[in-house]
Protein: Putative 2-succinylbenzoate--CoA ligase
Amino acid sequence: MSTSTTVAEEIARARQTEDPSPALPWNSFADFFRSRVYDRDLVNRPFLTYYDDDRQLHCTYSYAEFGTLVQQAASFLHDRIGLRRGDRLATILFNHDVTVVLYFAAWATGITIVPINAEETAEKKRFILGHSEAAALCCWHSDIKDVREFQRDLPSLRHVIPVNDEGFRDGSWYRSAGVKDSPPRISHLAPFSSDLNDEALIVYTSGTTGPPKGVILTVRNLLTDADAIADWHRFDVNDRLMCVLPIHHVNGTVVTLLTPFYCKGSVVLNRKFKSTTFWRRLHEEGVTCVSVVPTLLEFLLDADEDLAPYRLDRLKGFICGAGPMLKATALRFEARFHCPIRHGYGLSETTCYSCFLPNDLSPEERRHWLSAYEFPSIGVPVRHNAMAILDERGQLLPEGTRGEICICGTTVCNGYYKRDDANEAAFRRGWFRSGDEGFFRRDKHGRPFFFISGRLKELIIRGGVNISPLEIDDVLKRHPLVQFAMTVPFEHRYYGEEIAAYVVPRAGLSQPTEADLQRHCRRFLPFSKCPKIILFGQDVPYTSTGKPKRLELKTRLASELVMYREHQFTENDR
Structure:
């Protein structure tokens, strides 16, 4: 960064684009919201269907009914709690219709949502609440005692609000009361001065290498990415998306809540993913698209359910991203279930998705981009943003050369909250630097198809050579006795870093040996990329969105790998 350029200026540069896409036609989230719930063609159409299988809850709301619920919640937050534009409302909740209503009510009144994973540690919850300066917190009623403990150390946290299945526990808002009013009477949907640049979300990253960072997303970010996703997949009023991912994360929020509302479609929200009900629900609800992560594809492959009883003719495909997908997984899934994978890529810092495989690809072309290279392609940039591969000096790299994936445009966040150090590192020369290594290849039409080869911080540097762990993971997963595999580096006297692999064998089959898997790897990889040590286990550290935690696994295995630091692994070890 030039000394004459401030951090704020660099963030502003990265949020600009020459993309000629049409501008958003609304002045605020409230304007956008009214355009849907007051639409006479939508008032009686379903918007939100919710399932909680464990508690046998199932309910559906039309656009008008959803608008009434949002009005009731907005009135409560504004009149009873006293929250105003710019205040922050944290949530420690789970996938629930009440959570969705709270999100929309907050955005309609200019309030920022700070979603917190209910499964986070108490220390991380306390940190996020304090760092975000949340004025209020909504939590599930059974957690109220634990959550009130946070207030003692957090002077900014003025209100802790318990909710249950009916809404606010004190009776100020019951979803069973007045829901059938049509059209909704909306009175407190954002002050007159609100606009699209208001903060909508502060999403905290996982923080595997330090304290979590709060990503600031504006209303414009959310609606712009929803527009890009809807445009790319040609979603419209007849589309019905299903959400099985947690809505405290941008994938669940943007792809399967905001995008259906944006395109005037509908959403089927599940409390959690269950392979036992997944296909049946797609059938019963006439779902046209579902957003998943690669881990869920593996779970569905393992379940191997017979789809003959189901009619899935409305299902157009699976949006898949938010984690590394192996080539073998993609090909096996499409061959088994005959459903196209709409592979894509994005980050919280870019609102959600920045690119997808084009939907105009023939099955042969899609298989080519999923399997012809070392990694499956993450696709072509969607509108409202641009992507490039840059070197450490910020120079554009040519086709096929690996560097850092960088993004600019109106889907790029407004920086990290109270983290100038992180902003200075991530926003440089008019780009947001993702921290992911990748490259691109052009098709016959000249379109750049991007690939991600790994996190820069996760690359294994053996003897000065960068090695992507994803490539080795893919080879190990091809072995028929391997359920899960993840490659990690360990310190080594001669090479700096050497390669180890953690493997979970498939249940019910004979167990592979270390020698079996090493021979398997040497069929597909040069010796330098083969794991020298293979450790076996039964569990995998996942994030709540289904991403395997490679750095956490590396830390967990560190003590077991100490004994191998001095050993010299050479070609003679073949």
The radius of gyration is 24 Å. The chain has a mean pLDDT of 88. Residues 459-573 form a domain with the GMP Synthetase; Chain A, domain 3 fold (CATH 3.30.300.30). The chain is about 30% helix and 25% strand.
